[in-house]
Design a protein that fits this description.
By secondary structure, this protein is α+β, with helices and mostly antiparallel strands. It has helices at 4-17, 19-44, 61-85, 103-106, 113-152, 156-176, 191-194, 224-232, 239-242, 280-284, 316-325, 365-382, 408-411, 425-429, 479-495, 539-552, and strands spanning 50-52, 55-57, 254-257, 265-268, 290-298, 306-312, 332-334, 339-343, 346-351, 354-360, 442-444, 457-464, 467-475, 499-503, 510-516, 519-526, 529-536. α5 (113-152) runs antiparallel to α6 (156-176).
């Protein structure tokens, strides 16, 4: 049975809160009550008689009723507009040219969260296709520019023009996160200097006409004395990473090439832009200290290359962060160093504080196999115990090694137990539950979940049935700092209109459940660690995950960077 008293209380409360609504409803009621009376009185006074030529004629009954309804509709229309304004989107017609409108901003017609989610997925697929087409277009541009590079060796005008062309393309490559081979080449020397000079002929001692001198064994790569001479010219801070470049005993069919007059190029944080202009800033954000570079090409074809970059970052976390930030959606994970993958004939890995790229200009099995072989040799120097290099690859039969999924042994430091203040990324990842995990854990250095105050977070994707979420954790130097970040998080979501509910949980010092636009977060603090589940489509799995994680986490986790 309807509770009339309760409805009347709610109605009067709304009228008290909205004076404009009260006025409009009062005016409408007054019009409804007074208009029929006014019509009746005016009718008795012959007010409605109208002149038709020389005769005064009464209007028909129907016309009087219609006129009455029209008069009564004016306050009714006004009242309807007032009621509509209470539920109208005040920002519907606002326009900000600096804001990108999302599917949810534009889609006011979605009836359910599933419809909105389907629209978001469709938009993401469209953007992914556009990005893929853009990347493929830039790769085709690279292939077309290889002809110009070949001409640069014989034309001074072309050699002088190419650097400016590459400079203008740097911003495009940065926007699509592509290490284009042409962008990363230097053409600073005149054509006569960049062309390899023919090796001087060596006169052999005279032999008898019947004797045949044995041919010298071919040497792939540089002689040890050449490598020592190259390393001697490297600045002291970059000698260690320069020594990681494989320059001797190169796989058969491949040649180490010079960049100008040197086989090894090195750069520090101040001049890194000279080599990778347009991308240097992204490395500086991760605390890059230096970079060593060389490149290789097939013995009979110098138009296609495999370029080797070894970056020394500030620490293993920054190396992992940069490695993860450039990882494409389409890749094949491999067990190399602390983590690696192959993509489009290229190989990428990180080991300790080093991030290594082997960028191939050709998506071809031969190039992929060579890049993987060189990557193994670099990883063996960066992290002893990595998979040993395969036997030398023949140019005619090279094929990519089968990719494997990283195992726990490949990601955890071998036989080394970290000190209390020196945990590796693998140690932090091990704190996240393995059950339900959908992919490899990742490290996000900044702006996690869109919050500028949340950074350096370890996370992984989880799924239970049709419900997915992101599990995460972030250790701070003490409980006070972790609580301060939790307080900022709660204040921020409340400003966004979210509903926040405190929860009690075994093992957690504080826990909150947050719901907004059909998504659910459960965030807690245990000691100096902030952790939880983010972005679940239903609350129970996220809450169960957070409670289990709160129980499993230790009371104190070494802070990121050993107390930072």
């Amino acid at each position: 049975m309807m509770d009339v008293a309760n409805l009347w209380t709610k109605f009067t409360a709304e009228l008290a809160d909205d004076p404009l609504l009260t006025i409009s409803l009062a005016a409408a009621l007054a019009a409804f009550a007074s208009t029929p009376i006014a019509v009746a009185v005016l009718g008795r006074m012959d007010w409605f008689k109208a002149r038709r030529g020389r005769v005064l004629q009464r209007p028909s009954f129907v016309s009087i009723i219609v006129g009455t309804m029209l008069v009564m509709s004016i306050p009714a229309t006004f009242a309807a507009l007032v009621l509509k304004s209470r539920h109208f989107d005040e920002n519907r017609y606002e326009f900000d040219p600096n804001r990108t409108w999302s599917v949810l901003d534009q889609g006011k017609g979605f009836n359910t969260l599933k419809e909105a989610d389907a629209a978001v997925k469709q938009e993401m697929e469209r953007l992914a296709l556009e990005r893929k087409n853009l990347v493929n277009g830039v790769k085709k541009l690279d292939q077309a520019m290889l002809a110009l590079r070949a001409s640069a060796g014989t034309s001074a005008a072309v050699a002088q023009a190419i650097p400016n062309v590459l400079e203008s393309l740097a911003q495009l490559r940065q926007s699509i996160n592509l290490d284009g081979p042409q962008q990363l080449m230097d053409f600073t020397a005149p054509p006569i200097d960049v062309r390899a000079a023919a090796a001087p002929a060596v006169s052999a001692p005279a032999v008898a006409a019947t004797a045949i001198a044995p041919a010298p064994a071919p040497v792939n790569g540089l002689a040890p004395a050449q490598v020592d001479a190259e390393l001697a010219a490297v600045p002291e801070p970059q000698k260690a990473i320069a020594a990681m470049l494989p320059l001797t005993d190169v796989p058969a069919g491949w040649v180490v090439e010079k960049s100008g007059d040197k086989y090894i190029e090195t750069f520090n944080a101040d001049n890194l832009y000279e080599k990778i202009d347009g991308r240097a800033e992204s490395f500086l954000q991760y605390g890059v200290k230096g970079m060593a570079y060389t490149y290789y090409h097939p013995a009979n074809d110098d138009s296609k290359e495999v370029q080797l970059y070894v970056f020394e970052m500030a620490d293993p976390l920054r190396a992992l962060g940069k490695f993860g930030s450039e990882k494409p959606d389409e890749n094949q994970s491999i067990a190399l160093g602390d983590g690696g993958y192959t993509s489009a004939g290229s190989t990428f890995l990180y080991a300790g504080k080093y991030y290594t790229q082997l960028v191939s200009t050709q998506d071809d099995p031969k190039f992929a196999a060579f890049a993987l072989e060189i990557a193994r040799r670099v990883a063996a120097k960066q992290k002893p115990g990595s998979p040993a290099p395969a036997p030398a690859l023949a140019a005619s039969s090279a094929s990519p090694a089968p990719a494997t999924t990283p195992t726990a042994a490949a990601t955890k430091p071998a036989d080394v137990k970290p000190a209390a203040a020196e945990m590796s990324p693998a140690d932090y990842f091990a704190l996240l539950p393995a059950g339900g995990r959908q992919n490899d854990p990742t490290y996000v250095p900044q702006d996690v979940f869109g919050y500028s105050f949340l950074s350096e977070v370890f996370m992984a994707d989880y799924k239970e049935g049709d419900v997915g979420w992101q599990g995460f954790l972030r250790p701070y130097k003490d409980a006070k700092e972790a609580q301060a970040v939790l307080d900022r998080y709660v204040a921020s979501v409340k400003e966004d209109g979210a509903e926040v509910k405190p929860l009690e949980s075994e093992g957690a010092d504080a826990m909150v459940a947050v719901s907004n636009i059909g998504l659910f977060d459960v965030v807690f603090r245990k000691g100096n660690t902030l952790a939880g589940a983010n972005g679940a489509t239903t609350a129970p799995p996220a809450e169960a995950f957070a409670r289990a994680l709160a129980k499993s986490l230790p009371d104190k986790v070494p802070a990121v960077g050993g107390g930072k």
